[in-house]
Design brief:
A three-stranded antiparallel β-sheet has the order 1-2-3. Helix 2 packs across helix 3 (109-122). It contains four helices and six strands. It has helices at 34-38, 46-68, 109-122, 124-128; strands spanning 5-10, 17-22, 30-32, 75-87, 90-103, 132-139. It is 33% helix and 35% strand.
Length: 141
């Protein structure tokens, strides 16, 4: 299976503007640029998109792993904090911190943490990122 996304960029780094689109149409010519990445201007940026992909992928992986353990989540709420740091050779994504709050009837705290960590390691987006990926998981009663 292959999925595609595309970006169009026009201009220099700071004064240029870009648009990001996805094959599905979920994103269609969404603006991005230096200002949306570093200055808080409305639009998206690569780190935010990686965070969305990672949190979505992780949530689906956890749902699958819970099902394999005979459990079904009522709710899985995942946030991905993506860290972009300046390095000597330029910028790099150095970490992704996943924050998970899930309601899983019948799960013990120990079982939940074990399954959440299995999902963190097994999620395809986790596997592609060359960054430290950490997880805070909370089982909601």
């Amino acid at each position: 299976m292959k999925k595609t996304a595309s970006a169009v960029w026009q201009g220099g780094l700071k004064d240029g503007k870009g648009q990001i689109s996805t094959e599905s149409g979920a994103l269609k010519q969404v603006p991005y640029g230096f200002n949306t990445r570093f200055e808080g201007t409305p639009g998206t940026n690569p780190e935010e998109l990686i965070g969305a992909a990672h949190s979505g992928c992780f949530s689906m992986a956890l749902s699958m792993i819970l099902g394999e353990a005979g459990l079904t989540a009522e709710r899985i709420d995942t946030t991905a904090e993506v860290t972009l740091d300046k390095q000597p050779d330029g910028f790099a994504i150095t970490a992704v911190h996943l924050i998970l709050k899930a309601k899983v009837p019948g799960a013990s705290e120990q079982q939940f943490l074990e399954l959440a960590n299995k999902a963190k390691a097994g999620c395809p987006v986790s596997k592609v990122l060359n960054a430290k990926i950490s997880l805070d998981a909370t089982l909601v009663q």
